[in-house]
Amino acid sequence: MAFELIVNVLLLVFSFVCYFYVGATMPQSAADELGAEQWPQAILVLLILALLWNIFKMLRHNSRADILQSFKDLGPQAIAFFHSKLFIGMVLVVLMAIMYEPVGFIATSMFLLIAYGFLLGEHRPLHLILSSVIITFILYVGFSVFLGVLLPRGQVPFLRNFALLVESIFAH
């Protein structure tokens, strides 16, 4: 519980920083439209409210003695967290964010989906590869074709060429 409380407070502080950072760095939109700065801020407000609610529930449903005892057991809780599937999943998402530009959307999405499927317990290689290809295809079509979002092609030559080939197929 202590570890969860600490993470919630840190996320709350980080969300406040992000809210004000977005407001200070993004260009202001017209008064009659929702601009680029307002969507992230709206999501951050929802996140802040959810974190406050979660902190309130933890403090309300646990006695002071239980909370103090959980802080004494913080070491084992932290070690258990760093060995959990949740933490490994968070590391995978960070790796995806790092790989996104240099490797490109298609390869990064397939890597993440295969790794996440394996993490969640799917160990059949054919099933992992086939499902990641299908989901990546659906995501690509959804974002690139329907929403018109330019997805990163990557900087690795053969991956970039593959991304350009896929784009040429859907361009017509």
Summary tags:
172 residues, mainly alpha, flat
- Broad shape: flat
Percent helix among the residues? over 70%
Average the pLDDT over all residues and give the rounded result.
88
Oligomer: single chain
Count up the helices. Answer: 8
Work out the strand percent: under 5%
The sequence of SSEs as H and E is HHHHHHHH
Count of individual domains: 2
Structural class: mainly alpha
Q: Rg to the nearest angstrom?
A: 21 Å
Question: How is this structure best described in words?
Answer:
This protein has 172 residues and is an all-alpha fold. It folds into 2 domains: 2-81, no CATH class; 85-170, no CATH class. The protein has 8 helices and no strands. The chain has helices spanning 2-25, 38-61, 64-72, 74-82, 85-103, 105-119, 125-146, 157-170. The longest helix is centred in the first third of the chain and has 24 residues, at 2-25. The radius of gyration is 21 Å and the shape is flat. The termini are far apart.
Describe this structure in a few short sentences.
The chain is mainly α and 172 residues long.
What is the strand and helix layout of this fold?
Blueprint lengths: L1 H24 L12 H24 L2 H9 L1 H9 L2 H19 L1 H15 L5 H22 L10 H14 L2
